[in-house]
Amino acid sequence: MKTSALFTLASVVSSVIAACDPPTARISLAKKGLNPNGNVGAAYFMSNEPSGNYLISSLIGKDGKLSLYEGLYTSGTGLKGVPGPPVNVLDALFTQGLHRRIPARPIPRQRQRMLVQIRSRSSPSIQQNPAKLTPIGKPVWSGGEFPTAVAITKAGDRLCVVNGGAISGVSCYNVDTRKGLTPIRNGLRDLHLNQTTPATGPGNTPGDIIFSADEKQLIVSIKTGTGYLAIWDVNHDGSLSRTFSKVTGGVLPFSLTKIPGTTGAILSSDPGIGYSIYNLDGNKAKSPAVSTKIPGQIAVCWTVFSPASGNYYMTDIMTSQITEVHIEKSLQSHIVKQYDQGIDGPMDATIVTIGKKDFMYTLAANVTGVTVFTVDGPGNLNVFQRLDVANPAAAANITLNRLDVQGMAVFLH
Ligand SMILES: *[C@@H]1O[C@H](CO)[C@@H](O)[C@H](O)[C@H]1NC(C)=O
Ligand SMILES: *[C@@H]1O[C@H](CO)[C@@H](O)[C@H](O)[C@H]1NC(C)=O
Ligand SMILES: *[C@@H]1O[C@H](CO)[C@@H](O)[C@H](O)[C@H]1NC(C)=O
Fold first, then answer.
1. With 70 as the cut, is the pLDDT of residue 110 above it?
2. What are the tens digits of pLDDT across the range 293-324?
3. Of 397, 398, 399, which is best to mutate to test ligand 3, by the most ligand atoms within 8 angstroms of its C-beta?
4. Residue 28 alpha carbon to ligand 3 centre in Å
5. Measuring CA to CA, how many Å separate 162 from each of 84, 151, 239, 308, 371?
6. Which of 46, 90, 151, 260 is the most exposed place for a label (fewest CB within 10 A)?
7. Cα–Cα dist 301/310, whole Å
8. Are 36 and 69 in contact (CB under 8 A)?
9. Atom 14 (ligand 3): residue with closest C-alpha?
10. Which helix (H) or strand (E) element contains residue 211?
């Protein structure tokens, strides 16, 4: 049977810890009597906690509502970036990973390994309970010291991770749903960022990593103040071109979101200005990047697209505003509406379609919870559920810190 890796979560563990790996600790966060049957999928985020990193999973019901399920110890610990100018944000990794996040910690000889958890659609257990994750294969080195985001191919057969610390660059792997990850020959490339481990940011750090629509390029956003995209060509065997091409634009380009209906246009949130649209032709720019100001924004860093409204939603962890943007085929764009989320501190988000409705799952970092929105058409984003994670986690003795939590991944059957 053909299996496709649909979902990947990655975390970094030290070789020291791996050598005396404790048994996987699962801590239930489920309400008494919760029945995992009848779910349509699961949502996950990561504690990225320096005292022990947990993946926190919730079941998604047919109605789109979340039920907290469990915390799975990753056998690793979180590594936090050092906040610095120009924007002092509450974000530990300075990245958007869209479907996955990677925590890290410094260890002897500064080598780190990466644990990737992969579930395949045909696996019977994920059909039953996708909130119950199981590691596959052995941890591998991330190719650097501060891995912060990962891109995976549509087929789920390859992935690349970006490292933003003292050893900065990208590293690519073949994915086997039974054996795990094996490094791709000539898949390790340098970004030459002048950084430390952990990185000081958000300036001079990677923002996001994606494959282009045709998967012939690997693209990383770099927030330097005169921002740029680093673009490698991807060969048939998954290896990368020796050097990267630079496409400049924006100030602090953060998220990278492909614009559907175009061949190579990308939307990037930019906490230095608002957002930028890059129009790419392979590894070159078709036309110069166009930036648009979001008034009052401080840290607009994460972006998601809703097929239901045809619009983009960008979260700002510092102002707690969600900004909805519409982009025309011509790549002209405008702000549709802004939604005030109080002190939620929204960051990573994912939008999925359940039935005919789009649901947006957003990590509400500053209140250590998850907010579920329904997208009820353009200009009509509504809060559907506020899931408290702080109290159940505290009752179960899982340490969660609003300054550390990261990521928002969703798996649907
Ligand atoms: C690297 O960064 C350090 C600290 O900011 C700085 O002193 C040094 O000049 C930089 N090196 C290069 C090659 O840019
Ligand atoms: C985060 O929450 C605290 C209260 O716990 C509040 O004082 C603070 O303003 C919030 N921060 C942001 C950026 O919303
Ligand atoms: C949490 O830790 C406290 C103090 O160590 C202990 O009394 C309590 O039983 C623990 N609770 C759980 C759910 O493990």
1. no
2. 999 999 999 999 999 999 999 999 999 999 99
3. 397
4. 13
5. 20, 9, 15, 31, 28
6. 260
7. 20
8. yes
9. 396
10. strand 205-211
